[in-house]
Amino acid sequence: IGPIYPVRAYDAAGQPIMNPITGEQWYDYGMHPGAVNRPQGASAGRHVIYESMLNDNLAKRNNLGARTYVDVKFLKDFTFTPSFSVDIRNNNSTEYRNPLIGDGATLSGYAWNSNSNTRSYTFNQILKYNKSFGSHTITALAGHENYDYNYRVASASKTGQILQGNTQFENFVTPYSASGYQDRETLESYFSRVNYDFNEKYFLEASIRRDGSSRFHEDSRWGTFYSAGASWSISKEPFMSKYTWIDDLRLKASYGQVGVNALSTLYAYQAFYELGWNNGTEPGMLLSTAATPDLQWEKQNTFNTGISFSLFKNRLFGDLEYFKKGSDRLIFGVPQPLSSPVTSILKNIGSMYNSGVELTLGGDVIRAKDFNWGITTNWSVLKNEITKMPAETPAITSGTKRREVGKDYYAYYLRQFRGVDPSDGSSLYVPADGTAAANIRTVNGVDYVTNQTYAKFDYTGSSIPDLAGSVNNIFRFKDISLSFLVNYQIGGEFYDSEYAGLMSPRYGSSLHKDVLNAWTTPGQVTDIPRIDIGSSTNLNAASTRWLKDASYVAFRNVNLSYALPASVLNRIKVQNARVFVTGENLGLISARKGMNPTESFDGTNGAVYLPSRTLSFGVNFTL
Question: Would you state the pLDDT for residue 338?
Fold first, then answer.
């Protein structure tokens, strides 16, 4: 509720309304007898402070976890390692909504109880072989893994509170809802890997695995994936011996494939029906998801090549890498026609790739007896392109994005906002092709539309930055150490929907201070349209107006520590000790205050908290 409404209740004459029983002033929830009523849309019957005082929302969780393994060595070169892990979690949640204000008011009070149990276990059996003979070393392993996940939940709610002050489930009269279900997922994998090393100069590696997931139909739930890589330690070749300033120089390349089964459901291949669509006493249900028995693992293929080096006794080191990562059989939710009982069907129909370059450089800027300054910095550049879409839906629009062949997966597809008409403060948009002349407005010789229905959609920018990187500094002076990490991003666009909400007036809502620059007078030049609740849909439509530069600088981590000298340690009989203070998420600088471009790579935000700023103080010691 906006600050124009009081916390406590007053009558039309401005006099406080008192509770005759407690003698305290009532909270203003917009419906109290004698109080000034809020207008429609201003959340009458709600009050965040009062509701928080009267309502209860409690969640309790018990966790039990166990891990165990054993190494069995035999025949000198073999090791067999079975390992087992299990996690069990019980959740109990209760919610009480009071009968006076808020969601429970129309139900004469509301109580909800839920209990759930989660159990998962992983069982691995790995056989390793390690053998060296002469200049050759071979390491191999073969393994099998089982994963099993079970989840059960049951919940119920009742309404009609009998006695005030008693929020137990028995103190409510009418059953309101009851539900429960069980989920299960299993994964079985077979895998092996072989490493070969010749004279610590030439390295080869190959792996293969076969995975079966219960998320797919039994005829298509298995997938086979592989990888291969090689590296060459150039610095160990005889012809490099004269270059004594080179500590290490390696050339590397690899190609690998992994499977992805991260679907929105555990049962993608099955058709499901939604219960509860009853006609009086006659039970009813609707089809909610269509069967997709042909759905298969999504495959991600990655090629990497690069060079790493260390120079001048590790005074300077670095790594340069090029990568190209492609996704085949990309799983898309393909939209269905309105005549279909379901809105979309999951299919393996798409493919795209990411390619880019990553560079890491580090070293000691200063290396002295009592003082050292080391710095490590990283840069990365990324490009994305969609290479295949389904024939029946060659373009899929989802939120602020539109996916089609040849375009960036993270490219924005929005109405084209072009400013504000000085004559009446209307938002101006580029007209869509074929817009009738009656809907066109000409301003300074240029055609626009003011109704968002006729605005043109087009591609504008991407959430992918031009450059992303980090800088980590470490300073050491005798027994004192100071380090700090800074992340940054240059370029890219961010769609700030939270700012858009604060710029779209609603009764009783908070507003951004930028509304003070809104159009008010004919002839006024501004980029913020007039304040007009009745026309807010057209004035504040989703468009390029809400795109903002996604560049940022984030101060992620600072650590200051002091290691106690040996003279002190000897006196207190401690082997070593360190006193430290650490700060996390200390600050973020972005194009708009409060906007957090790191919230999502997709470049959109929601009503979430910023990362917590944390200060930690402590002592580490070894006896």
Answer: 82
Give, in order, the Cα–Cα distances in Å from 424 to each of 100, 235, 519, 539, 608.
45, 72, 8, 11, 36
pLDDT tens sequence across 277-318 = 888 889 999 888 888 899 999 999 999 999 999 999 889 999
Residue-wise pLDDT tens digits, 394-408: 888 889 999 999 999
As separate numbers, helices (DSSP H) first and strands (DSSP E) second, the chain gives: 4, 30
Tokens (6 digits) for 201? 């100069």
How many angstroms separate the CA atoms of 456 and 475, rounded? 54
Question: Which residue has tokens 């062949």?
Answer: 405
Amino acid at 556: R
Tokens of 421: 């008409």
Task: Tell me how far apart the alpha carbons of residues 291 and 269 are, in angstroms, rounded to a whole number.
Answer: 5
Lowest mean pLDDT across 161-170, 279-288, 307-316, 516-525: 279-288
Query: Which token pair is 63?
Result: 């966790």
- Render pLDDT for 19-67 as a digit per residue (tens, 0 to 9): 888 899 999 887 777 777 777 667 788 888 999 999 999 999 999 999 9
In sequence order, which residues have a C-beta less than 8 Å from that of residue 305 and are 6 or more positions away?
A: 252, 253, 254, 321, 322
* CA–CA dist 572, 527 (Å, integer): 68
Closest CA to 479 of 568, 559, 567, 565: 565
pLDDT in tens, 592-608: 998 999 999 999 998 88
Place of tokens 């087009």: 458
In single-letter form, the type of residue at position 547 comes to L
- pLDDT for 276 beyond 90: no
Residue 112, both tokens:
């909800």
pLDDT of residue 40: 67
Burial class (CB within 10 angstroms; exposed 0-12, middle 13-18, buried 19+) of 569: middle
DSSP state of 39: P
Choose between 48 and 416: higher pLDDT.
Answer: 416
In the block, tokens 């203070």 appear at 581
DSSP 569-591: HHHHT-SEEEEEEEEEEEEEEES
Q: Which residue has the higher pLDDT, 392 or 456?
A: 456
CA angle 285, 288, 294 (to 5 degrees): 130
Q: Which pair of tokens denotes residue 452?
A: 């968002």
> Are 200 and 236 a contacting pair, CB within 8 Å?
yes
Written as one letter, the residue type at 414 is: L
Interatomic CA distance for residues 352 and 301, integer angstroms = 10
Give the separation between CA 620 and CA 569, rounded to whole angstroms.
13
Work out the number of other CB atoms within 10 angstroms of the CB of residue 35: 19
| Alpha-carbon gap, residue 541 to 128, rounded angstroms | 61
- And the tokens for 113? 């109880």
Residue with tokens 């039970």: 283
Which helix (H) or strand (E) segment is 53 a member of?
A: helix 48-54
Burial of 589 (0-12, 13-18, 19+ CB in 10 A): exposed
Q: Which among 256, 261, 126 has a CA at the least distance from the CA of 187?
A: 261
Torsion of CA 293, 294, 297, 302, to 10 degrees: -170
Contacts of 368 by beta carbon, 8 Å cutoff, 6+ apart = none
DSSP calls for 76-144? TTEEEEEEEEEEEEEEEEEEEE-SSSGGGGGGTSEEEEEEEEEEEEEEEEEEEEEEEETTEEEEEEEEE
